[in-house]
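Usage example:
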Amino acid sequence: MSTFLGMPAYAPRGVGHLRGDEPFPEAARTALANPQLRRNLQHATTTIRGKSGAVIAELPDWQELRSAGSALKAYTMANLPRLLEQLEERVTAAGGVVHWAADATEANRIVTDLVKATGEQRVIKIKSMATMEIGLNEALEDAGITPVETDLAELIVQLGHDKPSHILVPAIHRNRSEIREIFLSEMPGVDPDLTDDPPVLAAAARRYLRETFLSTKVAVSGANFGIAETGTLAVVESEGNGRMCLTLPETLITVMGIEKLVPTWQDLEVFLQLLPRASTGERMNPYTSMWTGVAPGDGPQNFHLVLLDNGRTAVLADEVGRQALHCIRCSACLNVCPVYERTGGHAYGSVYPGPIGAILSPQLTGVEDNASLPYASSLCGACFDACPVKIDIPSILVHLRNQVPHPRAERTAMAAAAYTMDHPKLYERAQKAARLAKLLGKRGRGLPPPLNGWSSSRDLPTPPSETFRDWWRGR
Amino acid sequence: MSSKELILGRIRQALGSSPAEPDIPRDYRTGAAPVDLDLLVERLVDYKAVVHRTSDVSGAIAEIIGSGTLVVPPGLPGEWLPPEVPVRRDDGLSAAEIAAADGVVTAAAVAVVETGTIVLDASDDQGRRILSLLPDLHICVLRPEQVVASVPEAVAQLEPTRPLTWISGPSATSDIELNRVEGVHGPRNLHVILWETA
Ligand code: SF4
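Running the assembly step on the lines above writes:
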């Protein structure tokens, strides 16, 4: 790690969740051996693609909105110092306190100290990628503070002693009957006659968390957008747990990556149209909360905003790769990715899975710490077409591959796998068992990962009849 | 060196000497478009809100709440409230008192046709955010002149420094198999009274 003052730095090792325990190909092999996981993922991503495509088609100006969103983010990055200081000034003027955290360790310390200062031993949390990234829950637990995740999917993950596998729906790898099992065995006071009907499962979560919402005095949130011009923060959600966390406690601590900035209030008109349609496939998500500092007599009377770097400035330093910071975490790129659909999110190691994870995690940590991720893609381009802010993920992947300190042979092998994935005919042929066996040699080592993983798991997924790129365009 | 200086220094270093300043193409739809109230109703119903189009607000409220109890914000017009329904006005009610009510009635600041969204801005006739959050039934009274066609029009009308809550249907989740299921932590029942004085 560079100690040269002012040099962009990677996210430090040993804290947070940006690095996996094993490289992508090995992790993917485990996932590929789990047909239930693959069925759950396929069902969920198929559902969301259909919903999202339908509501996007309702807007005649979707492409214009994407162009505006993309330009707004580029503008934000180019003016980041000025806009961050403006945000700080506005939040402070509105009664909030702004903290700057150079990395995960510092952010965790700031939040833990703030909670300790309230004397409380429990915090409620609304799902936030930034706090997952920095491992805030572990830091709080080490300090004797209990973090309670209130998002349904996060609750499923927390109760199931599991890890999140999707940006938007961290428990996407669980189906309804698995969720029922987790609730039955792990949720205190749960009705033993619980069925796996989704409304019944949702009602169980409502009952379980109600008292916690009403009695907890500190909340921790992330932010989808922070508006420099006004100091306004926005959280986009569905269940109302966000509203609870942002309204009921006495103290609110929001952790926001420095890239979540939006220059002006008006700019929200773009992102509020892009995000829900690309994300949950809704015209608008059920609830969006916006607040500016402290509102006297309404909601938390103590507000802290923690601005987080943790490797983001290192991403910004790469002229090609910095686009990854434009991400609004909609998860559309995950939902269209043929690799994600087969491997699931855990294989990516980091809290950021799928195509965005493949370009963001290696840049946040330095490529050598996530060397296999730039290869976790077939470069089919579906992610680029799906991205509401037009991040050119395939180009960044290629750019990052050139930085990977890989042996030449592995690089070639990975490229072959990617090529095969993107060419349905070839892939189809490769599927034919006899040929595949020949190609693979005895123990499936002939094909590069992740193709060898798929073949040894026996039921190769049916390849798309058209490329994903064509399919997306044609919707 | 403070962390603020450190981070800002890193950013300047990362951006180099002359960062590009891209123009922002705003070629998407902005400006006022005709309001289609029928479409608003359709969009609200699509996300499982119940819509009442009426000139009789208190009659509609009486029908919705039945024998239940209500909490209301301090500035809610008294003539909206059915005389026979027990009502508590929010003069600093505790969370428990608010949660104990069967329903809450609020006005709204703006509604958006295209997305079926209602926005509350915590004005006197809408109240503190907690008020419209804890009861399981939210009745929202909307006047046609508060309705705009699109999201950009709504953003232009709102005051960003007020606490804002954008509501599109009752509380829901997409967390079980990525399908929308209504009814988690927020109000599970959303009734919109479109107050058409004719
Ligand atoms: S990269 Fe684009 S598509 Fe993927 S999560 Fe981010 S904004 Fe969405």
